[in-house]
Each structure stands twice: as structure tokens, then as C-alpha cells.
Recover the amino acids of this structure.
């Protein structure tokens, strides 16, 4: 079995030089009078960021990123051969720490885990300790790209599961949002013997039915929507009408947009920055945060136009893997009841799509729920303290997922 090796973020100077040259040659479009964020990124904002990016010091960002423990290793994926996978791995000093697999989505990356690492590293005995593993998904960040069709949810789940096994974590828990939600659900379906629990901060679910969830269906039918429910439904309606254009394009013609993202850093900046703005809860993004986030895509190993292929492949790949019950990895099944994986659900007011809590409870054995007054799609980055609060409450003493992994309850003596 391959052994993980230390990894250092070190982008060739030639790539940095080409980026700055392309930025200096950028030509900008015009903009309709009175246009603002409803049409996409405002022209003045993109021009300002391009000027800043030309002068910005990637090497300083590299230095900050390299303060964290990076590794890479080869993972053999059935039908796709070996893939070199980059990951952040922070081990706790507590011998009984809980192995936690953190899964990002698009347009995120491993960068989303970095703020919670120092918080989860604290081990004063009052809260559970965690070993945290945060991979760059294949095609994302500094992981190898995939060159064959059909790399979908089963393969992302297999990659992440095998990474945990290679690290010696035969039993573990997961945390995810965005594509991390779907991959986490896939891991729970395919590998429930290893994945003991999942905390989710983006919740897709179906309305409870009398045939499958009679008590929840009754509760949902007799409980009127609260004012919060109504606001969340308005947000969901807005997203479905005004915010899903990227999803349709990336799910149907991903190669077309790849040319723009691969060749033009300005296109990449606008494509992702719009999401950072629209999907967060009035988060005060600094230029340094924005440019670090975008530059990870710009300098990604598979190229800035590779990550969004996940949308097409998941939509167009048959469910070729099934769990022990013969259930394939279809959206329908992933929104069903997970039999043995305990769940924690966090509801944020500025998520992309939001469903009532009675819907979320159809996903499985929900042992922890949190409903925040603030928070958006990039929960771990926007409010790391709240996410850490959630996982500590879920897995700590008195929590619904306490003590699930034998010998790793988070409280044993330090090594």
C-alpha cells in the first residue's frame, strides 16, 4: 500500500508570470447603466480585483497555506487507476481523537477547512478531539485530474473512503456541504460499516410521505410554516429562478465553459467571485481571501476548467455501484433514509436551497440539529466557530453521536 508523503504548495514561477501577463492584457466589457449584482459581478469590482491581483503576492499566500500539514498519496480507484490525491491531515495529540473526513464542494476547495483546524486542535478535556482529513477532490486543487468519462459520486466516495483506510482510519465520521453533502451521503450508502456518522450543513431532502415517514408526514401536514420557513422558501425560490444558471451550464456543456476558465483568469475570477458574494451571508470578504481562493483554482493541478466537470459526470453516469441492499447511487436513493449512519444537520439562513426540518429528518437517524440566525453556503469559512460548536455538540459527551467509534470517543488520554 502506498504511504502518504509530505506536500508543499510551490507553484512554478512561470505560471505566476503568465497569470500576471494575462491580467495585464485583460480587456473588459461594458456594463448596463444601473447594473449591480443581480446581473453578475459589477464591472468596477472586477476591474479593481484584477489590478489588485496583478500586484498581489502569491508567494505570501503559499507561505500561509504551507503552515498547515499537507500530504499527498496514490489512491487506486476501480476503473480509473491510481490518482495522486492531495490532502490536509491534522492529527490530534489525543490518542482517542475521532477521525473526521471533511469534504468540500464547488467552488470551494481544501481551503474551507483551514479556519476550523486550530479550533478542533484545542483539547482541554471539555470537548472531543478530532483527527481532521480534508482532501482536494480529484480535479480540484492540488489533486490529480481524471482523464476518463464516468468519474461520478461512487468514484469520489471510493477515493475518500480509501484515503481514510490508508491513513489507518477504518472507522470515521464525515462533515460536508455542497458536493460534500452528496459525497458524504454516497459514503454512508456504500460504506456504512466505516462511516459511522455525518454532519451536514447543506441539506437536500424530500417531503415526508405517509408511505415512508408517516409520523413526519403528519407532523409536516399539521404544522404551519414559521416566518423563518417562509423566508427560507423565498431564498430557495430566488436561487432556483436567478442563481442556478451555472449549474445548468456545468451539468450540460462543461467543456464549453472550460475554454474561458482555462484561458482567462478574469473569467475565472468573475465566475467564482459571484458565488462567493451571492452564496455567503454578507460575509466581509477581504481581497486576500478572494484572491487566495481563486488562485487555488487558477493554479490547480488539473487546470482551472476541470473542477466543474463533476456536475456533468454525476448527471450523466449510471449508478454503477450499489450498497448491500442493491440501492444504486441515484439522487432519489441518496435522498432516502440512511439506515445506520447517524446524522447531524445544521440549517443556515443563507444556504442555496432550504427545506423544513421535518423534511431533513427523512434522511436518516437525525441525532443533532442546529438552526442558526446567521450563516451561508461557505459555513466553515464564514462561521468556523459555529461549525466547530456543532460537531462538538454532536460527537461530545451527551451528544447523539457520542462514542460511536470504539476507543475513539475524543476524550482519551494524550499520547
Amino acid at each position: 500500500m502506498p504511504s502518504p508523503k509530505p506536500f508543499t504548495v510551490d507553484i512554478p514561477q512561470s505560471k505566476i508570470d503568465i497569470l500576471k501577463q494575462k491580467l495585464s492584457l485583460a480587456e473588459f466589457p461594458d456594463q448596463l447603466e444601473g447594473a449591480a449584482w443581480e446581473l453578475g459581478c459589477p464591472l468596477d469590482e472586477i476591474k479593481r480585483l484584477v489590478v489588485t491581483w496583478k500586484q498581489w503576492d502569491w508567494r505570501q499566500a503559499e507561505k500561509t497555506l504551507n503552515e498547515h500539514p499537507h500530504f499527498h498519496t496514490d489512491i487506486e480507484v476501480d476503473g480509473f487507476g491510481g490518482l495522486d490525491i492531495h490532502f490536509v491531515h491534522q492529527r490530534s495529540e489525543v490518542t482517542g481523537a475521532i477521525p473526521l473526513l471533511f469534504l468540500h464542494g464547488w467552488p470551494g476547495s481544501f481551503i474551507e477547512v483551514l479556519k476550523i483546524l486550530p479550533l478542533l486542535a484545542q483539547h482541554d478535556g471539555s470537548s472531543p478531539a478530532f483527527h481532521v482529513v480534508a482532501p482536494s477532490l480529484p480535479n480540484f486543487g492540488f489533486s490529480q485530474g481524471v482523464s476518463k468519462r464516468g468519474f461520478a459520486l461512487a468514484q469520489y466516495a471510493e477515493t475518500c473512503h480509501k484515503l481514510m483506510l490508508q491513513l489507518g482510519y477504518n472507522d470515521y465520521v464525515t462533515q460536508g456541504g455542497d458536493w460534500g453533502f452528496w459525497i458524504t451521503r454516497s459514503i454512508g450508502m456504500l460504506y456504512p460499516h466505516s462511516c459511522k456518522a455525518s454532519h451536514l450543513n447543506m441539506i437536500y431532502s424530500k417531503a415526508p410521505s405517509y408511505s415512508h415517514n408517516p409520523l413526519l408526514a403528519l407532523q409536516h401536514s399539521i404544522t404551519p410554516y414559521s416566518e423563518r420557513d417562509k423566508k427560507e422558501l423565498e431564498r430557495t425560490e430566488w436561487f432556483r429562478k436567478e442563481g442556478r444558471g451555472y449549474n445548468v451550464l456545468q451539468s450540460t456543456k462543461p467543456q464549453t465553459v472550460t475554454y474561458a476558465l482555462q484561458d482567462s483568469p478574469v473569467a475565472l475570477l468573475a465566475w467564482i467571485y459571484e458565488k462567493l458574494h451571492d452564496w455567503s451571508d454578507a460575509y466581509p470578504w477581504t481581497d486576500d481571501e478572494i484572491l487566495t481562493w481563486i488562485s487555488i483554482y487558477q493554479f490547480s493541478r488539473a487546470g482551472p476548467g476541470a473542477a466543474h466537470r463533476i456536475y456533468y459526470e454525476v448527471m450523466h453516469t449510471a449508478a454503477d455501484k450499489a450498497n448491500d441492499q442493491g440501492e444504486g447511487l441515484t439522487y432519489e436513493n441518496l435522498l432516502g433514509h440512511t439506515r445506520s449512519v447517524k446524522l447531524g444537520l445544521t440549517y443556515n439562513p443563507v444556504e442555496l436551497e432550504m427545506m423544513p426540518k421535518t423534511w431533513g429528518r427523512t434522511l436518516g437517524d437525525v441525532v443533532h440539529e442546529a438552526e442558526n440566525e446567521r450563516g451561508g453556503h461557505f459555513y466553515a469559512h464564514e462561521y468556523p466557530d459555529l461549525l466547530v460548536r456543532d460537531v462538538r455538540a454532536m460527537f461530545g459527551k451527551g451528544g447523539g453521536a457520542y462514542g460511536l467509534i470504539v476507543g475513539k470517543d475524543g476524550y482519551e488520554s494524550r499520547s
